[in-house]
Amino acid sequence: MKAKRIVKWTGLGLLLLLVAGFQIAYWSSTNDCGRSIPANAERMKAIRYCEYGAPDDVVKLEQIAKPVPNDNQILVRVRAVSLRFFDGGMLGGSVPGRLLFGLRKPKNTIPGLDFAGTVEAVGGNVTEFKPGDEVFGVKAGALAEYICVRQAGAIALKPANTNFEQAASIPTALVSLQGLRDTARLQAGQKVLINGASGGVGTFAVQIAKAFGAEVTGVCSTKNLDLVRSLGADHVIDYTKEDFTKGDQRYDVIYDLVSNRSFAERRRILKPGGICVLAGIGGSGMHKETLSQFINGLTASFRSRFSNEKFVNFGVDINKKDLAVLRDLTESGKVMPALTKTYPFPETAAAYKYLETGHARGKIAITIE
Which of 41, 135, 232, 346 is the right S-S partner for 65, CB 3.0 to 4.6 Å? Predict the structure, then answer.
């Protein structure tokens, strides 16, 4: 009995500590929205969201202090920013989003990652770039007129054959490039099925798989069939009319950006020893299927440990070297961003609202004049 009481009170104590820790973390979660701009600081415009909520309620275009680069940084005049599928989830304040970005309030109040622009100034130790260079890359807080990026960070010269909006869309292709090249180890002549072929990542995956010499089948809705065909897909499947898991075709690789099929269904259409790369959970933002599709991916990965066909969860490595690979693929004409919508800087909230529908085609970019 004494041991039971010890276990009971120990458990209760731990629970109370956990609740108290959460409360402290929640109420101490804050951001820099209340700080004033130093009197001697230059100013710039930036998109900010100081609270969680709907885009129309929380996305604001405000004046903040312009950043000053240190000796190892590049000051970039941002000309365009593209949105990623998870950007909408950052704004809404979902439970996973709060755990990542701040419990009560967002820690980093300027959204955006993928940018393109012109080098405005460089620090004393920077030798790779010079003022006037047109660049693209990845940097948190990109939805601003100016950002500072480390020379060693994810930044590269912009492809010469793209405008700024197109170039800002290219970093998303890191997910496609690394998932197909490094995780799937896709080879020329292999057959690959891309589930979610019309989205921001999927449109790049179709083109990169073709660049690798694969035979590509893209899965999308009726309205997006022509888009996926135009990107080079050898075959397209309209998921509103046909269940791709019930066909006779077998694939060396499934590149799955939706994870809306069971382990058994996907395994059935893999060739012996094939691989399913789990690279997404469908759509943008948080929707009613998000949790089930996330769990579906985790369970599929675990179950594949006991089969010859592998299901592998994939995480992207944002790096300068692969940005250069994507630039070369773009300049060679093998890859081109499927940019379908652009919004002016003051209409950023409208861009987020469109993204949150979960059915965005290709890439969305915001132009910063």
Answer: 41
